[in-house]
C-alpha cells in the first residue's frame, strides 16, 4: 500500500491516536497491609499496585468477615470446605485455611496479576496454614473465564 492510500484510509490522521512512549505512568508497585487475627497472629497481605477492579485495597468488610469467621471457626470452618468469590487479596480465605478448613477455594476475576497475588499471599501464609492439622495447600493452574 502506498503512503497516500494509508493516509486516505486514516483520513490523513496518521499516528494521531498512538500514545507516545512514556505517556502512561509506570505500573504502581504492590503494597502491603497487615491484619492482626484475634488469635494474635499478624498476616502481611500483599495488594496489587493498581487494578481497575479494586484488588489494590484491603476492604474493612474483608477484615470484619475474617474476624467473624475466626470467632466461629470451630463450628463454621474446621473440617469444612470454604469458597470465596471475588477474593481480592484473599484475607477471609487465608483465615479459613489457618483456622482449619479442610479445603479453601479462593477465586477472583481471571486476571494474571490478581491470581498471582492470591498465590503470593497463600504462599506467604503457608507456614501458618500448614500448622493446621486439617488442611493441605495446593494451587489451581489459573483462573477460569466463564461466559461468551
From TrEMBL:
InterPro entries on file: Methyltransf_16 (IPR019410), SAM-dependent_MTases_sf (IPR029063)
Molecular function per GO: S-adenosylmethionine-dependent methyltransferase activity
GO cellular component: cytoplasm
Pfam family, one: Methyltransf_16
PANTHER family in the cross-refs: HEPATOCELLULAR CARCINOMA-ASSOCIATED ANTIGEN (PTHR14614), PROTEIN N-TERMINAL AND LYSINE N-METHYLTRANSFERASE EFM7 (PTHR14614:SF10)
Protein name in UniProt: Nicotinamide N-methyltransferase
Originating species: Coccidioides immitis RMSCC 3703
Taxonomic placement: Eukaryota, Fungi, Dikarya, Ascomycota, Pezizomycotina
Amino acid at each position: 500500500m502506498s503512503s497516500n492510500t494509508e493516509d486516505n484510509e486514516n483520513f490523513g490522521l496518521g499516528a494521531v491516536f498512538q500514545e507516545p512512549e512514556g505517556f502512561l505512568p509506570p505500573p504502581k508497585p504492590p503494597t502491603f497491609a497487615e491484619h492482626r487475627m484475634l488469635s494474635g497472629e499478624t498476616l502481611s497481605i500483599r495488594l496489587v499496585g493498581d487494578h481497575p477492579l479494586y484488588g489494590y485495597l484491603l476492604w474493612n468488610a474483608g477484615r470484619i468477615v475474617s474476624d467473624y469467621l475466626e470467632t466461629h471457626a470451630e463450628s463454621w470452618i474446621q473440617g469444612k470446605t470454604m469458597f470465596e468469590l471475588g477474593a481480592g487479596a484473599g484475607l477471609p480465605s487465608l483465615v479459613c485455611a489457618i483456622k482449619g478448613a479442610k479445603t479453601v477455594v479462593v477465586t477472583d476475576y481471571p486476571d494474571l496479576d490478581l491470581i498471582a497475588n492470591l498465590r503470593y499471599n497463600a504462599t506467604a501464609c503457608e507456614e501458618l496454614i500448614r500448622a493446621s492439622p486439617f488442611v493441605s495447600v495446593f494451587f489451581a493452574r489459573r483462573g477460569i473465564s466463564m461466559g461468551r
